[in-house]
Amino acid sequence: MAQTLEISQKQYSRIEKNETELTLTKLEAIGKVLEVTSQQLLGFDEKFIFQNCENAFGNNQNYYAYSGKERELFEKRIVHLEGEILFLRNQIESK
Predict the structure, then answer these.
(1) Please, where are the H alpha helices in 1-95?
(2) pTM over 0.70
């Protein structure tokens, strides 16, 4: 990676250890090598609001914010799957 960024291994190590500030140009170059966007490297995703938020029991939880349309699609899918479950239960009970 250091070679690709045209910096020394020591300089790259300082970036990894967060001992030096990373320029946007270098961030974009790292993203290009890893085939991800700079936003993904920074951990930004408008749907992923809280990452690894610990609740009172110490369990990691992820919270997402979905658009109204996405929520509607999920709700329709849930209704469909609930219908399938009922159908399959009836099939099993009738045997």
Answers:
(1) 2-5, 9-16, 24-34, 38-41, 68-93
(2) no
DSSP 79: H
Pick the closest to residue 41 from 77, 69, 16, 11 (CA basis).
16
How many Å apart are CA 82 and CA 9, to the nearest integer? 55
Helix H or strand E encompassing 10:
helix 9-16
Beta strands in the chain (DSSP E): 48-54, 60-64
pLDDT at 79 over 60: yes
DSSP 46: T
Identity of the amino acid at 54 = E
Average pLDDT in the chain: 78
52-91 per-residue burial string, b: 16 or more CB within 10 A, e: under 16: eeeeeeeeeeeeeeeeeeeeeeeeeeeeeeeeeeeeeeee
